[in-house]
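The following block was generated as part of the benchmark described in Methods. Ligand: NAP.
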Amino acid sequence: MKKIRISIIGFGVIGSGVAKVISEKKGYIKSRHGIDLELVGIGERHGSIVCEDGIDPMEAYDLAKSREMYKHPCWKEEMSGIDVVREVNADIVIEATPTNINSGEPGLSHMMTAFKNKRHVVTSNKGPLVVAYKELKRTAEENDVQFRFEASVGGAMPVFNLVRESLQANKMLGIEGILNGTCNYILTRMSTEGLSYEHALSEAQELGIAETDPSYDVEGIDTACKLVILANAIFDMDATYKDVEVEGITGITPESLKLASDEGYAIKLIGEVRDGLRVAPRLVPKDHPLAVGGTLNVISLHTDLAGEITVTGKGAGAIETSSSILSDVINISKYEFEGT
Amino acid sequence: MDLELKDIPGQLVLALQPISDFEGNIVSVVHHRDKKTPRGMIPVQVTFEIDGAKVSDLIDKLKSGGIIVARVGEERLRERRAVILIGHIIHSDIRDTIDQIDATGYAEVMDLAMSMPGIDQRSSARLVINAAGKREMESAVELLRNIAREKDLLLIEPI
Ligand SMILES: NC(=O)c1ccc[n+]([C@@H]2O[C@H](COP(=O)([O-])OP(=O)(O)OC[C@H]3O[C@@H](n4cnc5c(N)ncnc54)[C@H](OP(=O)(O)O)[C@@H]3O)[C@@H](O)[C@H]2O)c1
């Protein structure tokens, strides 16, 4: 049995969701993989929980839900997220602070500090990956630690691990997909119900599918960031946000959806890495594998040997995204275990 | 194109090579070895895409190789693509947009469906474009992209 010590930095929807899943899956991961996951640190914005003998993840989850983390016996008011990364003796740091696509902070500093302290990093945070992918990758390599970010693109859907493991003999020729569930939901509702864009958006906001300020999603920025990550990690490009041609869904009319539908097409916000990086509403034949509805995400990988491989699944949600995060954690743990 | 070849080895290559030389894209070849013509020739049906301007030179070339060109059937504009435009389509002169595509000679707008919810609101249109081949379709759509950019219209293309 190998004990793997974990810190979680950013204990919001995703961070606390991971704690909950660790609590629920601890026994299964032990018996199935021979790995004993132990939570030793939680770094939040206004303080931290640190306990080298192990934190009960469910207790922390419950306290976070009731916004009472300070009541935990191991609460350290003066300790910030970065202190936890530096000082708490963890093998793996799970970084789940908010995305900032301009500076990458605070995630970027958390990750760089983790690497320099010889800790592996698993993240769902796109910001640092969009701003400084190459630098992060190099620093991880220099410090001989792993850097995994399956959850950053497509939530629960496997993309990077699929390419790294199951498709490793293939050359990747192109990628296209629906990478934003909010846009997909709005377009699906406009199409099936004939709603106006504004109407479908406010419905999505009421359901908590769209943010109060939806611009990051509906203007295609989120999809563009995911393309940058895919381009850099899978195609070894050196792309930044500026390299993406971006058009969102704010200009789509219900009439255009009807006209498209009469010809057998749906309109979807598609992100594409091929000759260049492009986000735009596109016509997708209704019987095409990319024509998934609701909040689903989907991605098609074009490869030289396997042809086209398509995966679809939930692109967001605490538990779903935790599936990808734990997959990365287990992969790293196995690597640690075997020491290769 | 229906051709008739002599019943000796190497004739099929002799017939197909010039098509490639003129940058034709061969779609299918049906070789009727068992159905000799009264003249003792073997009929072959070749379907290919080619720039229309090159056809007569191609026929000359085939004839000079001893191949009989029995029939030339032309089916123009094989590629079909639907696109959507959104914006002030009428104000930005849809007639002119269509004319510019039609004026290329290798592509034309075959179908136009419009939906106008109200004055001052953005309209939506579906255009079906036909073009001679894949390359011609690409240039027609590239032209449409430029027009859309100029006229501030949102162009939605198929994946
Ligand atoms: N939600 C999803 O379904 C999903 C899916 C895939 C990827 N992601 C990505 O995962 C990350 C986390 O998402 P989320 O939905 O969990 O966001 P969230 O609920 O806002 O959680 C972020 C947490 O990080 C904390 N934080 C902010 N600054 C910090 C700092 N300097 N040090 C330590 N903690 C800090 C926040 O505290 P305060 O509340 O005090 O600010 C908050 O508790 C984001 O980058 C997001 O893009 C989310």
